[in-house]
Each structure stands twice: as structure tokens, then as C-alpha cells.
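In this section we walk through a basic example: taking a raw amino acid sequence and producing a predicted 3D structure, encoded as C-alpha cells. The instruction is simple. Fold the sequence below.
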Amino acid sequence: MQTVIRRYSGKGAKELFDLLEKRTADVEELMRSVKGFVGYTLARSDDGGFSVTVCQDKAGIDESVQKAKDWIAKNAGNTGAAAPEVSEGSVLIHLK
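The resulting C-alpha cell sequence is shown next.
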């Protein structure tokens, strides 16, 4: 399995997470549509927030990153949030 963390901070990040909180059903539908989807977490932090996506393989991670980017451009471009800091890696332990 593979995972990606997308961390949003700085100008517009809090506004982005306000919108994401209002649109959780849309976000859930979007992430569940990713091929090889295993899990997704969206969390708020002091300076914005972050998401953690787990997929069966790198192709799923790449798809999730692109879908998130496209959704934000279409639905939250007016927040002014900068592109996220992205970290990817192989899953060592996944607990449910």
C-alpha cells in the first residue's frame, strides 16, 4: 500500500478547510471513487489542515492527488490557498 499526505497552510488554508467541512459529502464521494482506495482522513490544524490518503498502489495515490487538485481548482479556487506540501511513501503499518 501507498500513502500521501497533503498539508495546506498559509493564506487561504483556513478558508479552504471551512469549505471542505461544508462539502464533506462531496469530498467523500470523490475520494471513494479513486481506484484502489483504502482510506482517507481530513483533519484541521492551527494553520489550515491536512489530508491522508491510503491506496493499494502508486497509481491510486497519483489519481487521488490529481482529483484533489482538480476539485480544489473548480470549487475552492477563490480561497487563495497555495498548493499543498505533499509527502508520499510506502505504508509500513495500517490499522483499522
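Looking at the output, two observations stand out. Residues 58-75 form the longest helix (18 residues). The longest strand covers residues 37-45. In the next section we compare this with other chains.
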